[in-house]
Amino acid sequence: MAILEIKEYGEPVLREKSLPVKKVTPEISDFIRDMAETMYTASGVGLSAPQVGVLKRIIVIDGQEEGLIALINPKIVRREGEVNEEEGCLSFPDMYSKVKRSSRVTVEGLNQKGERIEITKEGLIARALQHEIDHLDGILFIDKIGRVKRQLLLNKLKKQKTL
């Protein structure tokens, strides 16, 4: 297993759309293990393949109570409710903002064995699923907040990078 480099805001790969995985291979399984190890090392709740520079539709999430969830080609098929809670992103170190998300989501995708699965989650895991699936389409959490708050976060990020 390996720790992968997490791409930070400004890296073009974070704005690109990821491609579907056509076949779950041993290399894909190894990559998922590396993603999980990277997420755990960074103390994150979720990580998407584009965040480590790979444009494939793969995410990993661990909300602790349920253990690791790895999804290949995930797609949200149902949304319910709405919550406005704080979230962060490993690609935006030490930055947080309230983001409106669905309170409950149902997601379809493939597991590490290539089997089709459907999961329904709420709370932190639902938020993480939406956040990571957004990454697969080049959408960042700052795209979902107000213009003024977004500019404040970007100014803070710019200041951090110059220190």
Describe the structure.
The chain is of the alpha+beta class. The chain has a single domain, classed as Peptide deformylase (Peptide Deformylase). 28% of the residues lie in helices and 32% in strands. It contains three helices and seven strands; from the N terminus they run H-E-E-E-E-E-E-E-H-H. The strands form two sheets. The protein has a five-stranded antiparallel β-sheet with strand order 1-2-3-6-7. The chain has a two-stranded antiparallel sheet with strand order 4-5. A hairpin with a 5-residue loop joins strand 2 and strand 3. The longest helix is centred in the first third of the chain and has 16 residues, at 26-41. It is globular, with a radius of gyration of 15 Å. The model has no long low-confidence stretch (mean pLDDT 94).
Mean pLDDT: 94
Largest beta-sheet details? 5 strands, antiparallel
Count of separate structural domains: 1
Q: N- to C-terminal separation? A: 32 Å
Work out the strand percent.
25-35%
The CATH architecture category equals Alpha-Beta Complex
How many strands appear in the DSSP assignment? 7
Spatial strand order of the main sheet: 1-2-3-6-7
Catalogue the unreliable spans.
Answer: none
CATH homologous superfamily - what is it? Peptide deformylase
Radius of gyration: 15 Å
The CATH top-level class label: Alpha Beta
Tell me the overall shape.
globular
Helical element count? Answer: 3
